[in-house]
Each structure stands twice: as structure tokens, then as C-alpha cells.
Amino acid sequence: MWLWTWSFGELLKEDQVVFHYSEIPNFPQSTVPGHAGRLIFGNLNGKPCVCMQGRFHFYEGYPLWKVTFPVRVFRLMGVETLIVTNAAGGLNQDYKIGDIMVIMDHINMPGFAGQNPLIGPNEERFGPRFPPMSDAYDKDLRKLALGVGQELGYVEKMREGVYCSLGGPNFETIAECRMLNSLGADAVGMSTAPEVIVARHCGLRVLGMSLITNKATMDYNSEAIASHEEVLQAGKDSAKFLEKLVSLLVQRIEPNNNVR
Ligand SMILES: O=P(O)(O)O[C@@H]1C[C@H](O)[C@@H](CO)O1
Ligand SMILES: Nc1nc2[nH]cnc2c(=O)[nH]1
């Protein structure tokens, strides 16, 4: 199992082993405030997991093959299921700060401009040249996540929607938010789609969840200004809730027998 987010590493208390990214040959380094740059191995409710505390982004200057390099490393280590989380701006006007959007699909905007992590010679040992993406986010895991959230009493907070990945690092203009929403996106962020594309290419099962950390500005009369500080604060405010959710989810997830 691979957990990927800010704070879940603290959940892996049983048999914990921690590596700083700087200790791992060829691993990129985290440069974003709030991304600790540590790889944590351990057991969560008896299930072996590895957690990245900090991911890599295109806007940090890394090419997408490097942004997604850890996915293939973990695949080679025997990881079968990826739980990927992110901070995202809510485009859907019903969403509130602190909501969790289980990702049902994504729009990979940089892909439209020729930025895709699978560009280049295909590595056949990982997967096919032309992988499908219509089933990127596992239906059973999505159902499980929504059910577990509701079981924990987070009925109103649990959403399901479409995540739109952009290159960043700037937050969106009002016109961009309006356009993305009218294209069918419920939340917008700067990550996740590249990692999910590489994970699906190499046969990993994927569950994605976005924490809505801010409301995307859609109104020219609004005074709201997005900031990374607001994103980090919303992450801190929801840390306990997310930990409970992920902990119970991991307990409930059955082994993935379909991995290639
Ligand atoms: O790494 P994620 O996508 O969770 O983080 C988002 C996107 C930017 O890195 C940052 C903006 O505040 O949050
Ligand atoms: N692109 C983008 N990324 C985010 N990460 C957290 N909030 C946002 C947002 O509003 N836009």
C-alpha cells in the first residue's frame, strides 16, 4: 500500500523506518514549504505501507518523468495500491473548505499541451504504450472511501468529483476558474494527474482524494485571494479527520490481486 500525503506518515507507528529523500539515490528533493521530504515505511493496522511526506511538482522545475519517478520505484518494491491525496481549490460552488472530494476522474490540462509523464520511449516492463485512463480511479475504492467517511460521521463533508490538474505555480484567474468549472471540473490543483497516469500505466490500483483547502474565486466582486498559507492551514485543520479516514480505509482495503 502506498499512502501519499502530508501527515499520514505519523500514522505508520508500527515498525517505522524513515528515510530523508536526500539519502535515496536519484530521488528528487522537496522544495515546497509543508512538504517534509521524508519516506516513511511502517505498518498501519497490520498492513505494510510506505508514505511520501512531500511530493514533487512540475512547477518546481522537475520534468514529469522525475515528478513521477517514485511511482515506478514503489511499483518495483511491490506496492499494489496507491492512495494519493492533494490540496485543491473548490470550483464546485457547493463545496466547502474542509470537504473531502473522492476523485472520480481527472482532467490533465498539461497533457493537452504535450506535457505527459509517459512521453518518450515506452518502458514495456512497466506497461503498454497506450494505456487506457477511463478507469483510472478504482470504482470499489471510491465507494469504500465514501462509505467509510459516512460511517465516521462525515456525511456532509464527503463529495465525489472531477479534479483538474494544472502546472502551477500561480493560482488561477477568475476567468480560468469559471472556464474549468464549465468544463466539468469540481476542484483544481497542481499535482496528482501525472502520478496517477504513471500508476495506472504500471497497473497500480488508485484511490485519489482532494482536501478542499480554499474556494476558487469565481466572482469579480469577491475580495478572496488564494494563498499557500491558507492551503497549509486548511491541511492542519483537517489533519485529524484525514488521519481517521485513511486509517480506517487502509484497514478495510483488501489486497489487490489484479496487479500485473
Ligand atoms: O501537492 P499538492 O497538490 O497537494 O499541493 C497543492 C498544490 C501546490 O503545491 C500547493 C499550493 O498551495 O498546494
Ligand atoms: N491550482 C490550484 N492549486 C491549489 N492547491 C490548493 N488550492 C489550490 C487552488 O485553488 N488552485
From TrEMBL:
Chemical reaction(s) catalysed: 2'-deoxyinosine + phosphate = 2-deoxy-alpha-D-ribose 1-phosphate + hypoxanthine; guanosine + phosphate = alpha-D-ribose 1-phosphate + guanine; 2'-deoxyguanosine + phosphate = 2-deoxy-alpha-D-ribose 1-phosphate + guanine; inosine + phosphate = alpha-D-ribose 1-phosphate + hypoxanthine
Keywords annotated in UniProt: Glycosyltransferase, Purine salvage, Transferase
Biological pathway: Purine metabolism; purine nucleoside salvage
Keyword Secreted applies: no
Pfam families on file: PNP_UDP_1 (PF01048)
Species of provenance: Staurois parvus
Self-association state and partner proteins as the record states: Homotrimer.
Highest taxon in the source lineage: Eukaryota
Residues spanning the signal sequence: none
Assigned protein family: Belongs to the PNP/MTAP phosphorylase family.
Protein name (record): Purine nucleoside phosphorylase
The EC number(s) this enzyme carries: 2.4.2.1
Domain Nucleoside phosphorylase positions: 20-247
